[in-house]
Amino acid sequence: MPNISDHKKILDMTADYIVAEAISDFLFNDDDDDVDMGNPFNNNSTFMLDDDEMFDDIDEQDINMDLDYSYSSSTYLESKGWGTIPTSNYMSSVVFNLPEKEFKQDGRMTYEAFYDLVDKIKNDQVFQNNSYICQAPVREQLIVALYRFGMYGNGASAGQVARHFGIGAGTSDLYVNRVITALLRHRTDEVYWPTPAEKHNIKETIQSSSGFPNCIGCVDGTGIVLSYAPVDNEEDFFNRKSEYSLAAMVVVDPDIRIRYATCGFVGSAHDTRVWNNSDLALNSQRYFDGEEYLLGDKGYPLCKEVITPYKEPRAQHPNNKTFNFCLSSPRVRVEHAIGVLKGRFQSLRGLRIVIGKGKSKKKDQARAVLWFHACVVLHNPKTSILR
């Protein structure tokens, strides 16, 4: 049996890693016949590729070029003195033995909620290896991902997180990709349009508090800020707040539960454009029965499905002022929900993802969008704790 050199072993292992990482950038794309309630993988999403396109991008030539650049050009396989991040038992001995309050700072949830989530995703296929190399325990991968979801600024970088947990920066990214994949496979369990019974309760709550009958929620837009200027067409991502961002839209009920979420347009896109291209507008019959509608702000079009405030100068009329005041009361909940989402998962205040150009642009934008949707999935189960 021929001997395999250490250099060849590293090349082979890295080839497997690059393929896995490239696939993880797309995470997954499942097709089903169900109504897609805010599914980020629907046909309206501008960034998704079908399976054939995905694997077309992952060819042997690209892998070999990456390997040649990363390793074959290196003179030495051994460290040149600066060392690597040492492995440690920090997570098992420290992180999972922290007091509840301190654990929530890392994991953004209680121990009970954390282990419930571990039980929910631990059997996902993304955590199963078809090789002799075992993955890290799911709870360790999850805590790393939650820590990154909850961090903002320099503390959210892969390197900082890696040093905090005693793992490699690439390992940190891999853990996050796996957790996002697993969470989004369960997205319809947590983010779904209200059932008829739930609609009835929502209507009663909103009518009793503000006088609007048949209202089933509130809609609002928000920017998912990018920490870095995109490499290509950066002006398209520049929003009215002078930030680079992606445009997102959410529908929220009175319990600040997110019922619908969409994201993917560039930051310069107006709320009206995002609405008009959403499934709520394109297939409104799937969501609205009879005279049902949402409450929105002045950025949304006044239509059958969305009631908006009076604009100037008509807003100065006494009756219209009263109308606008009544409309603003339930809309506080959607602003509250967005604040809770970004306060809990502060990475959404400045995603440390560089949107490149060419093929990379689509993958990078997809990763940013799916990161947002993963945080939305995590937001819903524990909103009652956060009120």
UniProtKB/TrEMBL annotation:
Required co-factors: a divalent metal cation
GO molecular function, one term: hydrolase activity
Example of a GO cellular component annotation carried by this entry: nucleus
Chief localization: nucleus
Entry annotated with the keyword Signal: no
Stretches assigned to the DDE Tnp4 domain: 219-380
Keyword field: Hydrolase, Metal-binding, Nuclease, Nucleus
Keyword Nuclease attached: yes
Xref: InterPro entries: HARBI1-like (IPR045249), HARBI1_dom (IPR027806)
Tree of life domain: Eukaryota
Localisation per UniProt entry: Nucleus
Pfam families: DDE_Tnp_4 (PF13359)
Family: Belongs to the HARBI1 family.
Protein name: DDE Tnp4 domain-containing protein
Organism (species): Circinella minor
